[in-house]
Design brief:
globular, mainly beta, 8-stranded mixed β-sheet
């Protein structure tokens, strides 16, 4: 992974079952940047939480959209033809097959919704 951030991404475990209360703010506050986990599964989608700081990398998901909602911090999502800037409480869905490059401006906590089984680092 030369030139890339070391990511702590886990996809094999769903942290919380349906019917279980989840303290998303406490989970986000407890982790260092580049931590990413599946909080729960809703129907055929995963609700994931990412703690980010700095740049991710260019990637895409061929068969699934990716929803980003900023809870803390600031996230820019660079697309091939535009930059989408998100503040807390703002969200954006990257359509499937679209190349994107997330840039966290300082420490950010981001909620993501993706199809279950997604490879977070892209196809």
């Amino acid at each position: 992974m030369a030139g890339r951030q070391a990511y702590d991404i886990e996809t094999d475990v769903i942290e919380h079952a349906a019917g279980e209360k989840i303290d998303v703010s406490a989970i986000g506050a407890a982790h260092a940047p580049w931590w990413n986990r599946t909080l729960c599964e809703v129907n055929d989608s995963w609700v994931r939480l990412g703690v980010m700081e700095g740049d991710f990398h260019w990637h895409k998901h061929d068969d699934t959209d990716e929803f980003f909602m900023v809870l803390e911090g600031h996230l820019d999502i660079e697309l091939e033809d535009q930059m989408v800037s998100l503040e807390p409480g703002q969200a954006f869905t990257v359509p499937k097959g679209v190349m994107h490059f997330p840039h966290s401006r300082g420490r950010s906590v981001v909620l993501m919704i993706e199809r279950a089984g997604v490879v977070p680092t892209g196809d």
